[in-house]
């Protein structure tokens, strides 16, 4: 089977080879922290899907705290990526790899967030504290104190450390 994106002149591809790179793969995103780890609790959700074409990874995730047994933890929240990135860290304003929302279930507010690399395997979420203001990291106490049914969702795209397997 040919490796998608590395074709040579005159190469003939089958329909299966052309369709294979477009298949979505499920993954379970992990919500971790730079401090004490959060516990999502009973009834929580952690789902995601991604597609990798050569070294290009595009995907989305949905993480929600449950209705009971949650622990907010401490520190800034981190979300796992499905494949290691070629990038590890960058300046605060560099390497925006996606956007999404943080939803405050008890207050009924949604906060726009952007995602930056924390390291090769995780991203960190930043939210706007107010219109045209400085960004701050989402944590157990910001933008709100975490409570039952609060949630993250987002999209990302980045360069993987290695190409997809043929």
Which outline best applies?
A: elongated
- The helix fraction, in percent, is under 10%
Question: What letter string, H or E per element, gives the SSE order?
Answer: HEEEEEEEEEE
Distance N terminus to C terminus?
6 Å
The fraction of residues assigned to DSSP E strands is: 35-45%
Condensed summary:
With 166 residues, the protein is mainly β. Helices cover 3% and strands 39% of the residues.
Topology:
Layout: H1 15-19, E1 25-27, E2 31-33, E3 45-53, E4 56-64, E5 77-80, E6 96-104, E7 109-117, E8 122-128, E9 135-137, E10 151-159
Antiparallel strand pairs: 1-3, 2-5, 3-4, 4-10, 5-8, 6-7, 6-10, 7-8, 8-9
Q: Would you give an account of this structure?
A:
By secondary structure, the protein is mainly β. It is 3% helix and 39% strand. The chain is built from one helix and ten strands. The protein has one helix spanning 15-19; strands at residues 25-27, 31-33, 45-53, 56-64, 77-80, 96-104, 109-117, 122-128, 135-137, 151-159. Strands 1, 2, 3, 4, 5, 6, 7, 8, 9 and 10 form a ten-stranded antiparallel beta sheet that branches. The chain starts with 14 loop residues before the first helix and ends in a 7-residue tail after the last strand. The model has no long low-confidence stretch (mean pLDDT 88).
List the defining traits of the structure above.
single chain; 166 residues; 1 helix; 3% helix; 39% strand; elongated
């Amino acid at each position: 089977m040919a490796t998608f994106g590395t074709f040579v002149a005159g190469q003939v591809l089958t329909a299966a080879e052309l369709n294979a790179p477009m298949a979505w793969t499920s993954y379970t995103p992990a919500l971790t922290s730079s401090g004490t780890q959060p516990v999502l609790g009973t009834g929580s959700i952690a789902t995601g899907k991604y597609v990798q074409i050569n070294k290009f990874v595009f995907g989305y995730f949905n993480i929600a705290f449950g209705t009971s047994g949650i622990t907010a933890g401490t520190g800034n929240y981190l979300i796992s990526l499905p494949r290691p990135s070629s990038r590890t860290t960058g300046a605060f304003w560099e390497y925006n790899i996606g956007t999404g929302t943080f939803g405050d279930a008890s207050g009924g507010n949604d906060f726009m967030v952007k995602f930056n690399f924390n390291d090769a395997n995780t991203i960190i979420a930043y939210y706007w504290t107010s219109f045209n203001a400085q960004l701050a990291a989402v944590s157990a106490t910001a933008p709100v104190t975490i409570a039952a049914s609060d949630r993250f969702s987002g999209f990302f795209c980045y360069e993987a450390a290695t190409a997809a397997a043929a």
